[in-house]
Amino acid sequence: MNELKDSIVLILLLLFVVFLVGCSYATDITENNSFNNEISQNDVFKGSKSLYNYINKNEKLPEYVEISNRKYSMGQFMYLMSKTVINSQKNDLNNITIPYNIKSVKNPTGSSINGEISSKDINSYSKAIINYMDNNNRPPNYIKSRLGNIQYETMIFAISKFLSKSSNGKLAKITISVSRKSPINNNGYTIGLFSKYIKRDSLKKYLSSTKNAPKDEFIKKLAKKLTKGCNTKLEKAEAIFNWVKSNIKYFRYGNTKYGAKKSIKIRKGNCVDNSHVLVSLFRASNIPTRYVNGKCKFIKGDLDGSTVSHVWVQVLINKKWIVADGTYQGNRLGYVSNWKINSYKLLGIYSCVYTNTAYNINLIKYNRNNN
């Protein structure tokens, strides 16, 4: 019995020692963090260049900026860039204190911005940003300027461009051309290609199985596999879209050659067959989908420089018809980058597409809806 008591006492002592060591380690981490609350202006310049390149390429803001294995939210980095602009223009080379507990931007809004922004302008905007964030602990929705109200996202793009083009924050000027409807200002979405859902339009035809876009066991099985672990229609749609654009290689030819099933099996298809694949998988996942036909001027990919008839799809999510064009790797669900979205000619919106013998996409026969 005494031996058992001694063992229990020994175990308790060991647990107490482990607890003390753990507390000591936790304190060290806290203390180390307390000394890591500054960032150099040089690091902000580097981060700004990385941020600008990302936005310029993807036409959207990233979730964060990473510098030396440390992640900064967009709000934090907007503050750091603004401080760097102000300090560098008055030759203050000191490190910048990192802001914490920055809230998300509340309701960003603004105008289309097109014109030159001088270093004096950038400095003025940066001061306004710092003043607002110091008082509200969140980024401003917009900044007033002579070019109009510069929306939060466009402002981040402008400051990152300014700093990335300058090694000392004293660049003379930059040119900014960002539409209010630009993907940059709309979470990376090409909202100009979205359509509002009309309630009187029946969704039954947008969920039906067709010859070229069937909902048979083969399609259902693949759709289920691709959407495993997805909880919302948006997550399912993104999973399907990303698989299609990565696995169905684009080939140029007219009309429909393969349909959804064969295109999936041979991993290739033109814009019509690519759309068939998307339609069949979306509809098999109970996501209403329709075809869109337009004459588009291509600026990237295999069709670069061509103006031709083109087919893509729209999926209904949260009462909006969202664009989905899986023919180019740089496209995303809700975003198109391989053809000019502001100058295309809409030819029609359809629930299904049939094939005739003509080897010309313009002669495809459509089952057209009314809206």
TrEMBL record:
SMART domains: TGc. This is Transglutaminase-like superfamily protein. It comes from Methanobrevibacter cuticularis. SUPFAM superfamilies: Cysteine proteinases (SSF54001). Residues 263-328 form the Transglutaminase-like domain. It comes from the Archaea. InterPro entries: Papain-like_cys_pep_sf, Transglutaminase-like.
